[in-house]
Design brief:
The complex is a heterotrimer. By secondary structure, chain A is mostly helical. Chain A has one domain. In chain A, 78% of the residues lie in helices and 0% in strands. Chain A is globular and about 70 Å long. Chain B has one domain. Chain C starts with a helix and ends with a helix. The chains are: A mainly alpha, B mainly alpha, C mainly alpha. The interface between A and B is medium-sized, with 33 and 30 residues.
């Protein structure tokens, strides 16, 4: 493991401890009140959800046309993080929506496309787990098709009305809201990098193990 | 791995249950006069608390469970690696 | 050369299928049973739920399509003919196109029977504008089969392929299903709003173009060991 890993993990843990204090001190939003505080985990996890999906897609593309197993390991690790952060986004979202919109779920464009993206990632995991030999290439193809699919889902669902706020509100936030949000976002980003590194490490160990087994067989 | 996932699901259901029950309580009667916010009963002021608690506990639990699951998988692989390496060394000597 | 290979693959599949008609019969029977189950579940006192027909038609197509895709490639796997096909000195994209056209033809044949059946059981005026419906069905089927053929071909070598095909296929084909259902539903309105149908048709055309191109592009690296 690299030298930076342990200090970074300590910093990440500290930031996780500090974040709730900052969030608790942030002022209440005018119309939604207390429940709006879900925002400080919902938005950063949604960003990381998107980031890990992009990492998975790019790594898959490079694996498919380059064939370097390193990219395959990154893609698999990132796909697992898509499932993790997607689950966080998709659970915290309805909890907030129940209070803010009065419903748990709405077939709105952002919600639907997030759900479909998450489902593609779950399908990817199922494929990698139960697909047997050859599922690495197949998974890369699936990730590629999943990426190409996003604009179509977005356009098709956008044809109905949308009630989810756009991300344009983020730069206009006053500092009292903005500081906890950015702090939380950086914490999530650090968490993502650490988890990705850890998960890739696991895959590296696994391939070492496979190589050793092959060596003992001979 | 499966046990952790199962435990995670159980905890989520346990957390979501009270939140759903609380959130589905009928909406309060239409109010007919102005009531300052600090004179409202505590329940009306904070109907959001269970939702908020559920959200934050889910985040913490999910991240924790994931780290534990990766750590366990790594420990298994590590153990196997060490066993195999010592086997290899022994068979190399004899 | 390309067209000739496509034609040869298509003719081969057609000859094999005509000999037994196994896939055609089983798929058709399965699709009809699907529609009947929906009719039992949803039609109450002779009244079909409003706007249900479009959705049920597309669900039946998607289910039947998965079955046909799975069976077509299972047959290739059992007799190791896909390997032989890939070893032949033919362009891989041409093999893909031949397979794709075979599946599309099979599904269009099934739709010829499904459409009147759904129209009858759900009292929907599906056949009042046959031209529009035909365009929607062809474009939707092409999009569904374009993704399905590639995935089914890739899954031939994988374990538990029967379960994995629908698992992988449905999340990816969601836009096709949405567009197909919405366009068909718009067609069933008493006053047809042409702009809505144009929008969904445009989306279907874009989807078909993007995914057929993507499949042609990735078929080669995906099918090599």
């Amino acid at each position: 493991m690299q030298k930076w890993f342990v200090p970074a993990a300590v910093v990440c843990g500290l930031m996780f401890a500090i974040a709730p204090v900052l969030i608790a001190q942030a002022p209440y939003e005018s119309t939604m009140g207390l429940v709006q505080k879900i925002f400080y985990v919902h938005l950063p996890s949604a960003w990381i959800f998107l980031l890990s999906a992009i990492v998975c897609g790019v790594a898959s593309l490079r694996y498919l046309f380059g064939g370097n197993p390193r990219h395959d390991r990154t893609a698999w690790a990132a796909a697992e993080l898509v499932v993790l952060f997607g689950a966080i986004t998709l659970i915290t979202g309805p909890l907030w929506a129940r209070k803010a919109w009065g419903v748990w779920w709405q077939w709105d464009v952002r919600l639907t496309s997030s759900l479909m993206g998450w489902m593609v990632a779950v399908a990817y995991m199922l494929l990698r787990k139960y697909g047997g030999p050859g599922s690495d290439k197949l998974g890369a193809g699936l990730a590629l098709f999943g990426m190409a699919n996003v604009p179509f889902i977005y356009i098709s669902v956008n044809y109905w009305r949308t009630i989810h706020p756009t991300t344009n509100v983020v730069p206009t936030l006053p500092t009292s809201f903005g500081l906890p949000l950015w702090f939380s976002a950086v914490t999530f980003l650090l968490m993502f990098v650490l988890l990705l590194r850890l998960r890739v490490r696991l895959e590296e160990q696994r391939s070492r193990l496979d190589a050793l087994y092959l060596a003992t067989d001979e | 791995m499966h046990r952790i996932l199962f435990a995670m699901v159980c905890v989520c259901v346990a957390l979501a249950g009270p939140a759903i029950v609380w959130a589905q309580q009928p909406a309060p009667q239409q109010q007919e006069e102005f009531v300052p916010i600090d004179e409202l009963p505590a329940q009306d002021q904070l109907p959001a608390a269970p939702l908020l608690v559920a959200a934050y506990s889910f985040v913490a639990l999910a991240l924790f469970a994931y780290v534990v699951s990766v750590a366990r998988r790594m420990a298994t692989v590590q153990r196997e690696l060490e066993r195999l390496e010592s086997d290899l060394k022994r068979s190399g000597r004899t | 050369m390309f067209a000739r290979i496509v034609w040869l693959v298509l003719r081969k599949d057609f000859t094999v299928e005509v000999r037994s008609l196994e896939i055609a019969y089983t798929m058709l029977f399965f699709a009809v049973s699907c529609v009947l189950i929906f009719a039992f579940a949803l039609v109450q006192e002779g009244q079909a739920p409003e706007g249900g027909a479009a959705g049920i038609l597309w669900i039946a197509i998607a289910f039947a399509g998965t079955l046909a895709l799975g069976r077509t490639f299972e047959r290739e796997r059992q007799s190791e003919t896909l390997r032989a096909l890939l070893l032949a000195p033919a362009a891989r994209p041409a093999i893909y196109v031949g397979k794709l056209l075979g599946i599309v033809a099979l599904l269009l044949g099934a739709e010829m029977i499904l459409v009147p059946l759904v129209a009858l059981l759900f009292q929907a005026p599906l056949l009042s504008r046959p031209g529009w419906l035909a365009i929607i069905l062809v474009l939707g089927t092409l999009g569904f089969a374009a993704v399905g053929t590639l995935f089914a071909a890739m899954l031939v070598r994988a374990r538990s392929r029967d379960v994995l095909l629908p698992v992988l296929l449905y999340p990816i084909t969601v836009p096709v299903i949405i567009a197909g259902v919405r366009a068909t539903a718009a067609l069933l309105q008493p006053e047809v709003d042409a702009s809505i149908i144009y929008f969904w048709l445009a989306l279907l055309v874009c989807f078909d173009v993007v995914f057929v191109t993507l499949a042609l592009w990735t078929f080669e690296p995906l099918m090599t060991d």
